[in-house]
Amino acid sequence: MVKKKTCIFISGNGSNLNNLIKNSRDYVFPISVSLVISDNPSAGGIKFARKNSIPFILINTKTRSYENKILQNLRKYKISIICLAGFMKILSKKFLSNFRYKVLNIHPSLLPKFKGLNTYYRIIKNKEKKTGCTVHLVNEKLDGGKIIVQKSFFISENDDEKKLKFKTQRLEYAAYPEAIIKLLRYTNS
Ligand code: GAR
């Protein structure tokens, strides 16, 4: 099977990155993790790139041309799929036009509910009964774009932010690989 070369964008712990690396070792999983990009030099996730000898690039998003630098590297590594995994920057319409239907993001809520930051805090404050995670195509709007996979669970009375995060991320580790398979099946490329 010819695997699609994929770049994972991170800003933090990288547990989704680690999960996608593990999945990509399976012969029938359709992507290989070929590049990691981080906008945060102290992102914990960088260790997973190092450990697995995957090239990684640090991007300074304070410079105006950072998207060009990203693009150059994506071309250099022949990347055809991008997975945002805890990457906390919004990519421009111009940048995204280079990767139509090829950029996915994961968000810890049942979108379109609770876009943006402090998701778990707001879910608890709003006394939601159910929550979960969403993998969606990325457009230039915050946590916007067509939903590919959504997984949910019922919130227990004693769930605090920490427990919600734990339960949500467990679902994320199933949702992201499923969404990648689904996307590649539908776009047939
Ligand atoms: C994930 O839970 C993801 O849903 C969230 O960041 C976490 C990254 O964790 N993304 C967003 O909030 C995007 N709006 P990780 O670094 O351990 O994979």
Description:
Strands 3-2-1-4-5-6-7 form a seven-stranded mixed β-sheet, with helices on both faces. 34% of the residues lie in helices and 23% in strands. Helix 2 links the parallel strand 2 and strand 3. With 189 residues, the protein is α/β, with parallel strands linked by helices. The protein folds into two domains: 99 residues, Rossmann fold, CATH 3.40.50; 84 residues, 3-Layer(aba) Sandwich (Rossmann fold), CATH 3.40.50.170. It contains six helices and seven strands. The structure holds glycinamide ribonucleotide (GAR).
CATH class value of the largest domain: Alpha Beta
- Class based on secondary structure composition and strand pairing: alpha/beta
Quick one: biggest sheet? 7 strands, mixed
N-to-C CA distance:
12 Å
In the predicted model, the low-confidence regions spanning at least 5 consecutive residues are none
Shape: globular
Please supply descriptive tags for the structure shown above:
7 strands, binds glycinamide ribonucleotide, alpha/beta, Rossmann fold, 189 residues
Write the SSE topology.
Layout lengths: L3 E7 L4 H10 L6 E8 L7 H6 L4 E3 L7 H11 L4 E4 L8 H4 L6 E5 L11 H7 L4 E8 L9 E8 L6 H27 L2
Parallel strand pairs: 1-2, 1-4, 2-3, 4-5
Antiparallel strand pairs: 5-6, 6-7
The structure holds glycinamide ribonucleotide.
Glycinamide ribonucleotide (GAR) binds next to helix 1, strand 5 and helix 6.
